[in-house]
Write a structure and sequence with these properties.
With 306 residues, this protein is mainly alpha-helical. It has helices at 2-52, 79-92, 97-106, 110-119, 127-138, 144-152, 162-179, 187-198, 202-214, 220-238, 240-255, 264-293. The chain is elongated, with a radius of gyration of 39 Å.
Length: 306
């Protein structure tokens, strides 16, 4: 009988100890759940603020403008480049129209300054008057027909990179547009058509024709990049040594997995997953606590008291 009482006391002491430990765990878990809820709320607020906050734009107020003298020496800007630069400056720095004439005069030097003074004897009343006077004297005098022929006759030369060919084609069309914008109703359409026609490689030309047909709204820049990617893939497939290098690169990439930055959205998702796991654990522990807290029924005895 004493042995039974001793065993019962030991079991009772263990039960009390386990109950206290379970209460400690429950308290810690409750605190962890509260911390997770706060972190989840903070992450949600940050994500919402990041999504609704307007982009910050920094305007360079001390931007320097080039001077224009009308000289054709190497390194001197053309009248078209100078006009484009000054218009961009006016727009970015929000220069009032009444101040634009004085700003232009400060950047006119030498012959160009005298040209404006002579052509506008009564004085310039707007920036557009100065631009027009300069274009009449220093503007491109190449006939429109010549510019059109240069554009439509342009073909990719042997050994010329696709990017260089595309940029030169774009430059020729920009020169044409600067002289007569009515000749260029849609820049992207004209560039894409002539770009594909002038490609030197027959297979690439067929692929790009297919690209234009399947993606009619694709921009010229995207089409150019597609052609460049195709050329690079062809170079790799034709170079046997590049295949071994590619295999080695794959093995290295598999062996070394670079760490990726944890975005706020992924942080938000991970916190939710942790909170869900903790909720499951809490319920499981509560269930275990309720189960241990129930009094054990004494075993039934048979008729003989066994």
């Amino acid at each position: 009988m004493e042995d039974l009482q001793k065993q019962f006391s030991e079991l009772q002491a263990k039960f009390v100890e386990q109950s206290e430990r379970l209460r400690d765990y429950t308290g810690l878990l409750e605190q962890a759940r509260e911390d997770q809820r706060q972190a989840l709320a903070m992450a949600k607020v940050v994500i919402e603020q990041k999504a609704t906050a307007p982009a910050t734009v920094f305007i360079q107020r001390d931007r320097r403008c080039p001077d224009f003298s009308g000289s054709t020496s190497p390194g001197e800007v053309s009248v078209a480049e100078w006009i484009a630069s000054m218009k961009a400056y006016f727009q970015v720095c929000k220069v009032p129209e009444e101040d634009q004439v004085e700003v232009l005069k400060q950047h006119l030097k030498g012959e160009a300054k005298f040209t404006v003074k002579l052509k506008l004897e009564s004085g310039a009343k707007s920036a557009d008057e100065i631009f027009l006077a300069l274009k009449e004297v220093y503007g491109d005098k190449t006939p429109i027909g010549v510019r059109l022929r240069e554009f439509y006759d342009r073909r990719q030369a042997a050994g010329e990179k696709v990017r260089a060919y595309a940029y030169d084609l774009q430059d020729k069309l920009n020169q044409l547009k600067a002289q007569d914008s009515t000749r260029v109703p849609d820049i992207d359409v004209m560039l894409k058509e002539q770009f594909v026609i002038g490609l030197r490689d027959d297979t690439l030309r067929r692929e790009m024709k297919k690209e234009v047909k399947e993606k009619p709204t694709q921009t010229f820049s995207a089409l150019m990049q597609a052609a460049i990617d195709w050329c690079e893939e062809e170079e790799i497939s034709q170079d046997p040594s590049s295949k071994n290098q590619a295999r080695g690169a794959v093995h290295v990439a598999q062996a070394v997995d670079p760490p990726t930055a944890l975005s706020l959205q992924s942080l938000h998702d991970n916190i939710q997953k942790i909170a869900a796991r903790q909720e499951e654990l809490f319920r499981a522990m509560q269930g275990a606590s309720d189960h241990q807290g129930r009094p054990r029924r004494p075993p039934l005895k048979d008729d003989e008291g066994g």
